[in-house]
Each structure stands twice: as C-alpha cells, then as structure tokens.
Amino acid sequence: MAIGFVIHKAKRKVSPDLVARYRRLPVANISDVMSRIAGTNRLRPMHAGGWLGGPALTVKTRPGDNLMVHKAIDLAQPGDVIVVDAGGILVNAIIGEIMSTLAEKKGVAGFVIDGSIRDAGAIRAGSFPVFAAGVAHRGPYKDGPGEINCAISIDGMIVEPGDLIVADDDGVLCVPHDDAEAVCKLTEAKKATEEKAIQQILAGTSDRRWVDEALQRLGCEFKD
C-alpha cells in the first residue's frame, strides 16, 4: 500500500445547478452566514479578477512538486475546481501559464493553490481564475508523492472532495457538501437584506438609531 501516494475515486460533488445559484452571491455574504469563521484570507486572486465556483477536486502534494497536479488536470471534469494543498510553501511554483492554459482548455473552472504560481504576468492578464498564496520564479519538481481526492487543509480551511469552492476578489471559501443547499438559501436572504439597505441609503431613509442603541447597551460614555 502506497501511503501518501494514491489517487482516490471521487464519490460525490455539488451539482452544477447549485453552483449556478452561488454565482450570484458575494463571498462576503456567504462568509457572513457561515458565522464569519470559515474560509481563508491568505490566498489572493492572481488573474484579472472575477468569480470562481465549483466542486473541489482536491490534491495534496509535497511542497514544490506538481506531478499530482498534472494528474488532477487529466482527471478533472468540466466545472471542477482543482484545489491544491502544497503546504503553503512559496519557494517553488506549483503551476504556471502552460498548466493554466491546459486546465482552461479542459474546462476546469479554476485553481486554488496553497503555494506559489509563476508566469504571473500572463495569468494576471487573463480571466482564467487562479487563487494562490504567492509567486515564485523557481519551477516545480515532478517526483511526487501526493494524493488526489483526499481531505486537505488550505491555510487551516478543511476541504473535502466534492465540497463547493467559491472565490472572488475578497478571498476563497469552502462550503461543505452537505451544507451547501442550506448556506445558499441563507446567503440569498442575506444578499436581499443588504440590497435593501443600499436602496435605503441612496433614498436617505436609512435608520441609524441602532448605532447609539448599541453604544448604550455596551456601556459607552458620552463626555463633554
């Protein structure tokens, strides 16, 4: 048995219809309804900007090695997000322009990488979603080991195969597979509430009494 060097079979994933519903929802609103303790703040968009969403195809690799990431591209189905736990080490890039072009051609939704990328200028000029922790000119090795379709940790955020990955300019978030429907409904309601608040501000009818009420409740003193 090859401990730490194995490709598992994918067993479940969030549906394309549910992913489409999330496309209308800001990551910040999703984070709010998940008690503001989920996700990661360290990974940033490396592309020109825009939303990323889809079921996670997870990869755990030795830092600085991308052999299993190459295999993940071969295994990926259209709409999958390849999520790579490279240990957060930034010395060697995990992907660059060639791999991102290959993945985009295959219909992969995008990459989330707890590690570095290179060819940053080319990736930044494009719209193919790539979220990563950093940039490094040093290329990767291709020796393994690693695992595909296993539980991984991205900057402390646990990702299981088939979980929903959502990301935008505010960062990256994983919604557990079994919670994705409920979180979507809560986020839709949250977004509607915020849109109403914006309209009230623009109309000059926003009620700001809650600020003083909160200060009084918390014991704030007003002094001349």
Write the topology of this structure.
Elements: E1 5-7, H1 16-22, H2 27-33, E2 44-45, E3 52-61, H3 67-75, E4 81-85, E5 93-95, H4 97-106, E6 110-117, H5 120-125, E7 130-135, E8 146-148, E9 152-154, E10 157-159, E11 164-168, E12 171-175, H6 180-203, H7 209-217
Parallel strand pairs: 1-8, 3-4, 4-6, 5-6, 6-7
Antiparallel strand pairs: 2-7, 3-8, 3-11, 9-10, 11-12
Helix pairs in contact: 2-6
InterPro entries: RraA/RraA-like, RraA/RraA-like_sf
Pfam families: RraA-like (PF03737)
Organism: Bradyrhizobium quebecense
Shape descriptor:
elongated
State the low-pLDDT regions, or none: none
Give the number of DSSP strands. 12
Largest sheet: 10 strands, mixed
Task: Give a short overview.
This protein has 7 helices and 12 strands.
Explain this structure.
It is a single chain. This protein is an alpha/beta fold and 224 residues long. It has helices spanning 16-22, 27-33, 67-75, 97-106, 120-125, 180-203, 209-217; strands at 5-7, 44-45, 52-61, 81-85, 93-95, 110-117, 130-135, 146-148, 152-154, 157-159, 164-168, 171-175. The strands form two sheets. Strands 1, 2, 3, 4, 5, 6, 7, 8, 11 and 12 form a ten-stranded mixed sheet that branches. The longest helix has 24 residues, at 180-203. It is elongated, with a radius of gyration of 20 Å. The termini are far apart.
